[in-house]
Amino acid sequence: MLKIGLLGAGRIAGVHATAISSNPLSTLAAVSDYIPENAEELAAEYDCAARTTEEIIADKSIDAVLIATSTDTHSGLIEAATAAGKAVLCEKPVDLSLARARACQAAVAKTGKPVMIGFNRRFDPNFSTLRAALEAGEIGKPELLSITSFDPAPPPIAYIMVSGGLFRDMMIHDFDMANFLMGSAPESVSAVGSSIVDPEIGAAGDIDTAVVTLTYADGRIAVIKNSRRAVYGYDQRVELLGSKGLLQAQNMLENTVVKSTEAGVTSAKPTYFFLERYMPSYANEWGAFVQAIQTGTPVPVSLEDGVLALKMAEAAAQSVSEGRPVKLSEVAG
Amino acid sequence: MLKIGLLGAGRIAGVHATAISSNPLSTLAAVSDYIPENAEELAAEYDCAARTTEEIIADKSIDAVLIATSTDTHSGLIEAATAAGKAVLCEKPVDLSLARARACQAAVAKTGKPVMIGFNRRFDPNFSTLRAALEAGEIGKPELLSITSFDPAPPPIAYIMVSGGLFRDMMIHDFDMANFLMGSAPESVSAVGSSIVDPEIGAAGDIDTAVVTLTYADGRIAVIKNSRRAVYGYDQRVELLGSKGLLQAQNMLENTVVKSTEAGVTSAKPTYFFLERYMPSYANEWGAFVQAIQTGTPVPVSLEDGVLALKMAEAAAQSVSEGRPVKLSEVAG
Amino acid sequence: MLKIGLLGAGRIAGVHATAISSNPLSTLAAVSDYIPENAEELAAEYDCAARTTEEIIADKSIDAVLIATSTDTHSGLIEAATAAGKAVLCEKPVDLSLARARACQAAVAKTGKPVMIGFNRRFDPNFSTLRAALEAGEIGKPELLSITSFDPAPPPIAYIMVSGGLFRDMMIHDFDMANFLMGSAPESVSAVGSSIVDPEIGAAGDIDTAVVTLTYADGRIAVIKNSRRAVYGYDQRVELLGSKGLLQAQNMLENTVVKSTEAGVTSAKPTYFFLERYMPSYANEWGAFVQAIQTGTPVPVSLEDGVLALKMAEAAAQSVSEGRPVKLSEVAG
Amino acid sequence: MLKIGLLGAGRIAGVHATAISSNPLSTLAAVSDYIPENAEELAAEYDCAARTTEEIIADKSIDAVLIATSTDTHSGLIEAATAAGKAVLCEKPVDLSLARARACQAAVAKTGKPVMIGFNRRFDPNFSTLRAALEAGEIGKPELLSITSFDPAPPPIAYIMVSGGLFRDMMIHDFDMANFLMGSAPESVSAVGSSIVDPEIGAAGDIDTAVVTLTYADGRIAVIKNSRRAVYGYDQRVELLGSKGLLQAQNMLENTVVKSTEAGVTSAKPTYFFLERYMPSYANEWGAFVQAIQTGTPVPVSLEDGVLALKMAEAAAQSVSEGRPVKLSEVAG
User: Fold this and answer.
1) Would an 8 Å CB–CB cutoff place C253 in contact with chain A?
2) Can you identify the CATH homologous superfamily of domain C122-280+309-330?
3) What CATH number labels A2-113?
4) How far is CA D318 from CA B248, D167, D324, in A?
5) Residue B142 with chain A: CB contacts under 8 Å
6) 3-class SS at C8?
7) Which of C140, C155, C269, D266 could form a disulfide with C159 if both were Cys (CB 3.0 to 4.6 A apart)?
8) Are C236 and C243 in contact (CB under 8 A)?
9) Is residue D87 within 8 angstroms of chain A, CB to CB?
10) pTM recorded for the entire structure
């Protein structure tokens, strides 16, 4: 039974608390948060201790920490926890700065401790079924990947301003999905973007709508579409054309009821947002982490995976600002 | 916090144990089974006591019992538990004998204790969404109901022989669904059936394929189709034609992946069986029971509902054996 | 090149005129109608002669006639045309009276001329694909057939009064579809019906909503649902459960556009009515007739098929009026 | 009644011959082809004259010509026919050379004769329904357009070599679809492409897989995906995200039959290729042309539309060869 410390007590930390305590191989020992009351509240709900982050990291009885704090603290906490001998599952992204993420990676390497990055979508049953079909050769050789990833509504401008921008905050999930499905890094990244959903997002220096094309050394192509607003719900679809067919992962719907009237045939909307859509993937992600730690096998999403996605985000941002495709090899770090 | 005793430790009892212990308003206090080792195993898993049924019923600290034992014990246990002052949630059917169920109902009435029958499908999110749309008037006045309910594979012959027959064991769920959606009892029941899936089922005196038509005093009609075998999975669909449209609850699929190849466009099968399909409905059912008990409001599926469904099963069996429609009023009890 | 006389110049005759003149193996030579102006109008459109029915039947240069007149004239015209040596394609039903239809069948038998009955749905690409899959063994042995057949809106009461009733006028198509897919006649027919859509239909002595269950000697079962009103369009679906799977023919939609908004995900309605839905089947039906005539092979839908469907309609009507299942062998004729 | 001359007697000319002769407002007067036997065969089928192209153009009784010859002859024939006073419907593209197309446009302008370019997909019922919904404001303001356009199988290498390349031959349809739906020309074109389907296509100097991103002055974005091979059929989908929802035009399927077995739930493939999928659009296209000519209103797809799509193809080709986005304003002509 792994004893787990949970760093952070916000919304996503609550999701992880459920996964940790539901898993028969792990137990939630302690929670911390920069607002102690939040930690106390979550600790009460899950019948564990509320402590400081420092106490948790120093506690030798704790085997692993799950980092669900704000992005700017990720690198430091990964370093501190691995230095203290703990295994780590850290929410994405590793850091907003690629250089800082690289430094973190170097520090972790010295400890030899496992660090997994929380690209939970890899553990979504639909996407993992799609990948299994691909690996089983069901569509032959992959050629053209398309990822549609629209949020239901934009976050507050205050969030936008500290988010690192759409590529590092939102599309980073899709960059990792491309890596997960294509199995290798792209050669070049070509991005366009605009703030057509909300001009305030543009005024804040970010974009809300973007299309990124990735090219691979062997001729494969991937295209990722992001929008901060799809009023009908959380639109999360993947399709992959191969030499022998097409694989699609479609949206999950709120229910299976269909209504036919004079006005048309209406079915339910996609599940609203990530908590609804990806709840099973958080549980699966945690299960995969626990299993890797217990069996001493590599974690399924490495710190290197986290750094690669960040590098692609950096290239995309550079592509938009310079108005040209950017080779991944151009990105320093 | 309601303290619950679980009577029975089989497969479905395990599902209920999860629902009871996950609900913040109830706690699983004790489990019994006619095979004590089964009770001990389940008790260990849920960290509660393994006791005898008699002990649980006699324990004044236990507020309610969930009866998940074999059908022949249902009536007796409902009577004993309510006489001991407990609220009861009992798996369907109340009994295989309508007379016995009626006697149970009379006994319970004297205690004034709430008894809910486990027609869990009423709590399936799809069927309850369909009913809500109906009640909101979205298809006007209901006219013609169709229920498709196919199991993935027939049970063992040994089970068939003690099951009470397809109408009391399997279609009883669909009779209750018809009552749930139509809001009143039918006037007459007309049934046909055969053992075309497996002649051994016929040799055991039962049928495996059946169509039952229900007529209502106001001209509405319902038709229920059952088969013990749909090799593609658990086929659970409802559709209701009304004066202003059609409502359908379609199957839930194992995943949303679609594969297009030279052979066609293939999507996932329906979820395999009731544990997969109705898991959320068991949790919702339990939540509804707990809420009714705590607020002192009527349970949403009454013992009378259980008796009505049983009466319809009786009428259907009589219809098949006599080769004619049977009025519900003809059924003694 | 077959020279064709078209008897009748109403709406459905227009559909047949198109089929006849588009087929490279047939040419439309003449049209008649009891209202001569109608015949003249249609003749002008298709550049052929407007003549009397008697003239067409007497014209030795005409090889075959298509009978698209009112139902009460069908039997007489079939007899006259075959007696004159012509091949016949006659719209359904053969007659409203089973006895009259039997007499017609006897008269035709003496001429040895081919008579095909216009159960056009057999030639619908979806239903014929379904049947081909069944015959290819794709779902093993058939067990349980369901036919959903709803009109978009009821016809005028004046039509209802001369229609012969829902079973002979509307469900007769579905009886033939059952025969087409099941490959043999049922043993018994059990029907319920009501006039819940429009009480005026009831006042006119007919029903507007019906469910009919057919049982077969080998244990197979079929169920047919009819309603005169589905406000969302023409609902024409078939599904057949077999030992190795399920085949469904779903509705054809007006277009493939899907709109997702805050209100839900809306797709197009089914094509509105039979002219839209079954236009290709009329062309295919005609092609099959022409080919049979030219090759001297049996027509794919025989007069016997027409009589069988009528017999089933008769049994259904009797079942409703007597409130009991009726064996097909009980039906005189 | 417009008298029409058809230039060309190949496969697509046959489709147009059907449209011309089925339309009540036009009649097919004459056909020509550079292989006279082909013209004679088609003329025999449609009961019209086989003549030389020169004769048709010189014939004052012919009101309009439909040009369905090889691409290299389009500009010259447009010029000759308009100079002879005829209205023209010409298959896409206007020319492989933008300069040549511009010269043609200038020559036509002097004649004042209407020239329509055969972007038939604008007349597909699904795409035109989508556009009508957009114009009705059903998804608010458009923001992000995606076009998926995959052929079932690559053409012969010999065809590839004279085709003008994927952008001018295949994606030109999608460029026009973008113009049709977005209502204005893009500002810049960014393209990537590879020959991953078949290296021989690469050896012939072309690509078989491409993604093109279009950006608009107001921040809207469009992305077009092309592949020469989708083994499951002709994949022709459009989706458009707007401020109030999403519109999708999905594929048309060969039939509506769905088969559920142990292997999954299988439906029909998309209709195989353009003749199957776009047959109704050719008829609608011709109808729109005839109506414009007869009413003296502008043709719905202008020569300028043809030139704009060609310019976008040119920009895309330049973008691939130079590895950078190309502004439409950079393209000479």
Assistant:
1) yes
2) Dihydrodipicolinate Reductase; domain 2 (3.30.360.10)
3) 3.40.50.720
4) 52, 10, 8
5) none
6) coil
7) C155
8) no
9) no
10) 0.95
